[in-house]
Structure formats: C-alpha cells, structure tokens
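Issue: copy button drops trailing tokens. Both records pasted manually instead:
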Amino acid sequence: MRSSWRRAIGNVRSFVGNSMGGLRGGSNLASWVVAGTLAYFLWVKPSQDLKREQQQRAALAAASDPYRYVEKRKPIPDPQETGLIYGNKNRTNKSED
C-alpha cells in the first residue's frame, strides 16, 4: 500500500519536473528567475509605464483648461406636434367635422 503512494507521489514529482523543462535544483530556479525578469521588462513594465504616462497626460489636459469642451451645434428642436412640450395638449383640427 505504501509503495503505491510513493509511486504516485514520485510520478507527480516527475511530471511537474518534466513540465518545467526537466531542470532540477538551482538551475531550475535560475531559469525561472531569468524568464520572470525578461517577462517583466518586456511586457509588464512597458504597459505600466504607458498607463502611467496616459494618466499624466489626462491629468495635465484636465488641469490646463477645465472648459475645453464646447458644444458647437445647436440642439435639435423636438419635431412632435402633440407632445408634452410646453403643455401642448392633444389638439386636433375640428374643421373636418
């Protein structure tokens, strides 16, 4: 019974070791450190710097001119004739009667 447990644990350790490139000990740890460092400097840090730069640009633009958005078009009037605008009741032409 104990040998089956030991064999199962050994198989799991073997699978994990092989899935990480087959390296063991210090070389395995060193390879993971190198890969993590490269990933950080190639992907994570540039995206963080870009996000920080965009936030700084947005803050600078908002602080420099708080009234920078100006509506350039006049609002379109409501085309309905029998709507609720200004208390316009449902008036119909009674000349047809």
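Record 2 (pasted manually too):
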Amino acid sequence: MRESDDIEAAMDRAEASGRGHVPDPAEPRLLRDALGRFATGVTVVTACECGGEGNPIGITVNSFASVSLSPALILWSAARSSMRHAHYTEAPAFAVHVLRHDQSGLARRFTRSGDRFDGLDYTMNEDGVPLLADTLARFECVTEARHDGGDHTIIIGRVTRFTADPDGTPLIFSGGQFGGFVPDAQPS
C-alpha cells in the first residue's frame, strides 16, 4: 500500500468517526456507553405483583421523566427483559421514589434478585402500593397509559399524591456509576 493510500484510509476513518455510529442490535454496548454519558437521577419504582394483589415488587429505574403538570403525569420505562415486566405493565398503581445522594445501597438493593423488601422500612398506601420511607421525593400514581417502546414499555402514571424534601440532593447515575450532585456556586 502506498503512503497516499494510508493517508486516504486514515482520513476516511476520521471522517466516518466524525459522523458517528449507526445503532447496531448486534453491538448494543456502543450505544449504551454513549447513552451513559447523560447523567440521570435514580429512582425505585414499587408496585405489587398480579395487578396489585400480590407481593410487593420494586425495581431501580433511571428512565423517569415529567410529562405534564396539568394533568399531573409522569413516565418511566420497564424493560421487556425484566422478570418483573409483566407485573409492572399489569399494575393499576405504582410509586416512583427519587433517591437521595446517600441511597446508592437502596438503589443496588432493587437491581438484584431476591426479596428486596426483606427488613426494609415501608408502608402500603390505599392502592396497595409499597411506599419507601425517607426518599428525596415520591410520586404515587395510578396507571394512565402504556405504550410500546421497542425493548421497553413506556408506562405513564397520573400522580395522585406526592412528597418532596426541599433540602436533600439527588443520587445521580452516569457512565455506569452512582454519584452525587454538586450545585454551581451562587454569585454573591
């Protein structure tokens, strides 16, 4: 190969990398890593199995967002690959708990299998939804709609009650790691 061919090949590679990658289902790690550059808050979504009649369930979620203030709507996305997917998509009600900066242990607890509620301080609301104590914010919801979202189901909830601690700071997730939020210094 001539030197000019080497230079042209290097320029082609540089140009292609400047355009970015095309999502490839066979290589999801590249897209997952790129999405991981966006920092998100961390929540635990709770409900009960069997459409609200069974055992309490919970899952750590970072796909939480506000949809509307009037009416009060939020959304989160349940992975179809989750063993709890069917329970969440059938649940008539659920709660989203926004975690504090020091609750990474609680977040990890709801990422693994086993009885996540064993020894945990929680109460049940009138809709039969487990409510975790001492989180930064909590949104109690009834399921408003479900939408197909590829390998996830997008669940929209109508907020029926909420709580918020004005003094806490959120737990953040980015690049596969938990961390905290450091606010900008306010000008004097």
